[in-house]
Fold:
Amino acid sequence: MKATPEECSWHQRITARDDPIAFSELAEHFYNPLVRSVLHKVQQKSIQLTSTVCVLVEEAVGTALLDYNEAPDRYDPQRASLFGYIAMLAYSRFHDAWKSEQCATVKSDPLSKLDSLALEQLIEQQDVDAHLHAQELWEYIQRELVDAQERKVVALMLNNIRETIAYSQVLGIDHLPPKEQQKAVKRIKERIGKRLRRIVRRYQQ
Amino acid sequence: MNDHVPSLARLASLAKQRQGYLARLLEIYQKHEGVDDQQLASLLGGEVSALPLLALCQRPRPTPHFRDDIDRIAGYVHVQPLALARMIRSAEAMEQSQQNEAKTFFLAARDYHEEIVHHEEHEELDE
Structure:
């Protein structure tokens, strides 16, 4: 389906690069319907709409919108509707993120049970034993991590917070340029991830 | 989870990581001046609920477009143009100074590293 005249007009405003509010208006207009549309598609694929999934969908829609705004020329109004194009981008981003979350869980080795998604899903399924186990594990992790900053980073990881800025704020590096922040956060998350695995291994022994 | 309510604030937060949006400047200003959303909104003479939309606007283009862009943005999110222009100019200056600091830090780190390597090479030659 081609772009509607209204979508063509949005697209022209975005590509013209001379209207500072064009993207904000586009987001205001499209964001909620896009999130609902992608959530619907996700549900059709029999994926349970946990809060983690909803967050992943919102991130995917947000990323797709920002990506479109940065490279609007990749979109061809003759080939698809703008809404459909961004929804497709968003679903694809969600799918990748979901797959990597799943891989981290499924690889298991019980250690990857620590994955935030697994923990959250256990709790959402109201499996009391599992919930208690997760709770106990969380308390153990907190005891093992002496450093308050590391505990905060772990809490963000377990709550499946993905935005770099959240970690940068905890680490006090949010004044650095975004790329430097990303590098530093990635390095620290990897280091803490390794530590967590060691802690869980000890916990399981 | 069907009752999930999407929030533009999440998109605004993602925009902080990208170039060209006001999101990053707002964040820099808030951090530097220690003002929360409510304070920032009243400083700009607007509503807190408009901040995510403001964050998703593109940065105003340099002069001669600056003033027109500021008026356009201010009209869209219902804030005072002058207050918005002042805030953006301050945040840009803060951003510039942060970038300079970071650059100085990395150059100093590189010099230090080179000095160590140089020192080690000398030690090896002495041996």
